Amino acid sequence: MNDRTINSLEFDKILTQLSAHAESEKTKERITPAIISTELAEVEQMISEVDDASTMLRYRNIELGGITDIKQHVRRAEIGSMLGVPELNHIRTMLNRKNMLTKVFDEFEEDEVELSHIPVYITGLPDIHFLYRRITETVDDSRVLDHASETLLRVRSRINAEEGKIRERLNEIIRGGNQKKLSDSIITMRNNRYVVPVKVEHQGDFNGIVHDISASGQTVYMEPMAVVQMTNQIQTLKDEEETEVERILYQLTAETAEVASELTMTDDALHHIDMVFAKAKYGSVLGGTKPEVMAEGGIYLPAAFHPLIPAEVSVKNDIVMDGETRAVIITGPNTGGKTVTIKTIGLSALMAQSGIPVPARDGSRLRIFSKIYSDIGDEQSIEQSLSTFSSHMTNITGILDETDRDSLVLLDELGAGTDPEEGAALAISILEYLLSRSATIVATTHYPQLKSFSYTRDDVINASVEFDVNTLSPTYRLLMGIPGKSNAFEISNKLGLNPDVISRARELAGRDSQEVNDMISALEKHTRNARDNEQETEELLRESKAVHKDLRNYMDDFEAYKDKLRKNAREAANRIVKESEIRAEEVIRTLEDMKSRGARDIQEHEIIEQKKALTDSYHQEEIRRKERAAEKEKIQAGDEVDVLSYGQKGEVLAVEGEEATVQMGIIKMKVGLDELKKRKKQKQERPVARRIGKSPVKRELDLRGERYEEALNRLDRYLDQVLLSNYNEVEIIHGKGTGALQKGVQQFLRTHPKVKSFRGGMPNEGGFGVTVVEMK
């Protein structure tokens, strides 16, 4: 992309705003027009990476601060030049950020948040954690640590001991009746020597060496001879310290050089990720969205807006060029938004091809352009000062020479600055030439001849910016497919011009011209109504989709719950049949045993008892039915019941005739009264008894990784156990993920009869990945 296009579209300002979101100075320096790509695969990769980063930022802040360019440090290490503590700390910070990102990616994977493009930059790096550990164990922010080596620890311990002796000796001198001879009772340093401030007139009373004199000349700083030898010893020890520190730093430098290529890879990866997150952060602040890019096709930017105009005042417009449309001609009043529109199109293309979210609603689509040209030179352009006809033609000449089918050409006020008839003819000729080269063109104009030009070609459409005659001001709304019309008569009438003058002007303008204007007015009105209806329809469609999604989720949950109930019923029935078979076999064996003892030994009462046992095993359902009938009249709203046909407990919400509405977990259904058995209320003393002894039930339930239905089943069983354990508060760990499991859990808790309240976890409890439940 040439500099004229970058400057006239003000893309340089977009890059400046983008760089403010980068952490590293190296990344900021790389944010130039060079980030624009013309390769489809590369653009798709950039957009996907930024989409990953945007997903991560919706869940948490990603800290990349502190990273800096370490390649120069690595090169120094490779040639054997000693790295100092600051350089090693730069490397440590880089490795720390790499470790942090590794942990973050693992957490997102655990929470089942899909990230397909960013993690590979970190997970694919070689493991050099040992170097991070070595640097951390060796240096802090400013110096080599004492325990970096035994020698250093020993030397520094001796230095501290000797310094303590010196201070003790100097304090004895100060306290030994010399206070009146001193300017101040303090110990200070001059030229790395310990000194005391002595009044100049008492200099001869002290046996020592003068190292400095005050600015007033009234105080001399003397080192008493009593500590000279001890200070010399400290200097010797400090030389040893310096030698050992250099040895340690050289050793760390050598270890750094051994993994130079790995560090270079890490530096490249982290600065790349810094760039990606800068784009995602800027896109979030801007309110941009992920575009779809194509090798062929048109331009679709729903609710597009200029990214440099504050969002609160920008007007959003749908900009549409299908694959068959090669040119759009925009007409309308001055300062009505024509220039803003073509800049919005150009900036959206440049941003998309840089991997930056585009200023439009979801669903944006753009083709990839290998070249983008612009000729924008009116008074509305801050950056472009060439506005004469000759300068425009000079620029357009270059565009015509270089454009091809993969070019986007943006022409503002095409043909302006000369005789209207010649300018219009020249504008049409330029458009025809560009269309012959299959370029994609967006042009603005005042010339009415260009309005009719689009009707002669299938690949050209008109558009206009709306003007409100009532307020005498532009609305900045773009009307696709409708040419702009002259509002001179309406404006003049609004401003109070004599009606006779206006009437005569209409006659002079001609009937055909007036009919065209009337037709355009009707089209504008129709378009406005259609746009309003479309917005209302889209809103209703969004609401309908949301309701449909909720209903679908409910039906899925309900079907899963029914499957569970059927499974439980089958298992219960099979168990009853199996138990009955076993019991029948036992009865048969008993009777055969009796028979073997001889018919005379079989007592009548024994046969009756065995018959009764066998009969009982096949008539449990009849007993339950009678129990239901006995309980039916006693059930009322608010009662806790057992739903006998499902083997579940629930709460009666309402009773109507022979049916009751019962809440069972997340399911609400109508059940016959003969299917319900009223649960006995527990005595108040029982919970106290349950507190005795240690409950095996944990105070938290981890549902991460569970399927939706199984997770809710586990939660239901867990809450039953919690009630038996008499816990007042428990935690449900569902993770963050897509939020579906969290929503399902909280919906279940909202309808559970024994849940008093619930809330999201605090940061120290796990944040949004945890729901804290308070039981009744």
From TrEMBL:
<keyword id="KW-0175">Coiled coil</keyword>
<dbReference type="InterPro" id="IPR007696">
    <property type="entry name" value="DNA_mismatch_repair_MutS_core"/>
</dbReference>
<dbReference type="GO" id="GO:0005524">
    <property type="term" value="F:ATP binding"/>
</dbReference>
<dbReference type="GO" id="GO:0016887">
    <property type="term" value="F:ATP hydrolysis activity"/>
</dbReference>
<comment type="function">
    <text>Endonuclease that is involved in the suppression of homologous recombination and thus may have a key role in the control of bacterial genetic diversity.</text>
</comment>
<dbReference type="InterPro" id="IPR002625">
    <property type="entry name" value="Smr_dom"/>
</dbReference>
<keyword id="KW-0699">rRNA-binding</keyword>
<keyword id="KW-0540">Nuclease</keyword>
<keyword id="KW-0067">ATP-binding</keyword>
<protein>
    <recommendedName>
        <fullName>Endonuclease MutS2</fullName>
        <ecNumber>3.1.-.-</ecNumber>
        <ecNumber>3.6.4.-</ecNumber>
    </recommendedName>
</protein>
<comment type="similarity">
    <text>Belongs to the DNA mismatch repair MutS family. MutS2 subfamily.</text>
</comment>
<dbReference type="Pfam" id="PF20297">
    <property type="entry name" value="MSSS"/>
</dbReference>
<dbReference type="GO" id="GO:0043023">
    <property type="term" value="F:ribosomal large subunit binding"/>
</dbReference>
<dbReference type="GO" id="GO:0030983">
    <property type="term" value="F:mismatched DNA binding"/>
</dbReference>
<dbReference type="Pfam" id="PF01713">
    <property type="entry name" value="Smr"/>
</dbReference>
<feature type="coiled-coil region">
    <location>
        <begin position="523"/>
        <end position="597"/>
    </location>
</feature>
<feature type="domain" description="Smr">
    <location>
        <begin position="701"/>
        <end position="776"/>
    </location>
</feature>
<dbReference type="InterPro" id="IPR046893">
    <property type="entry name" value="MSSS"/>
</dbReference>
<dbReference type="InterPro" id="IPR000432">
    <property type="entry name" value="DNA_mismatch_repair_MutS_C"/>
</dbReference>
<dbReference type="InterPro" id="IPR045076">
    <property type="entry name" value="MutS"/>
</dbReference>
<dbReference type="GO" id="GO:0072344">
    <property type="term" value="P:rescue of stalled ribosome"/>
</dbReference>
<dbReference type="GO" id="GO:0140664">
    <property type="term" value="F:ATP-dependent DNA damage sensor activity"/>
</dbReference>
<dbReference type="InterPro" id="IPR036063">
    <property type="entry name" value="Smr_dom_sf"/>
</dbReference>
<comment type="function">
    <text>Acts as a ribosome collision sensor, splitting the ribosome into its 2 subunits. Detects stalled/collided 70S ribosomes which it binds and splits by an ATP-hydrolysis driven conformational change. Acts upstream of the ribosome quality control system (RQC), a ribosome-associated complex that mediates the extraction of incompletely synthesized nascent chains from stalled ribosomes and their subsequent degradation. Probably generates substrates for RQC.</text>
</comment>
<dbReference type="GO" id="GO:0019843">
    <property type="term" value="F:rRNA binding"/>
</dbReference>
<comment type="subunit">
    <text>Homodimer. Binds to stalled ribosomes, contacting rRNA.</text>
</comment>
<keyword id="KW-0255">Endonuclease</keyword>
<feature type="binding site">
    <location>
        <begin position="332"/>
        <end position="339"/>
    </location>
    <ligand>
        <name>ATP</name>
    </ligand>
</feature>
<dbReference type="GO" id="GO:0045910">
    <property type="term" value="P:negative regulation of DNA recombination"/>
</dbReference>
<dbReference type="InterPro" id="IPR027417">
    <property type="entry name" value="P-loop_NTPase"/>
</dbReference>
<dbReference type="GO" id="GO:0004519">
    <property type="term" value="F:endonuclease activity"/>
</dbReference>
<dbReference type="GO" id="GO:0006298">
    <property type="term" value="P:mismatch repair"/>
</dbReference>
<keyword id="KW-0378">Hydrolase</keyword>
<keyword id="KW-0238">DNA-binding</keyword>
<dbReference type="InterPro" id="IPR005747">
    <property type="entry name" value="MutS2"/>
</dbReference>
<dbReference type="InterPro" id="IPR036187">
    <property type="entry name" value="DNA_mismatch_repair_MutS_sf"/>
</dbReference>
<keyword id="KW-0694">RNA-binding</keyword>
<dbReference type="Pfam" id="PF00488">
    <property type="entry name" value="MutS_V"/>
</dbReference>
<keyword id="KW-0547">Nucleotide-binding</keyword>
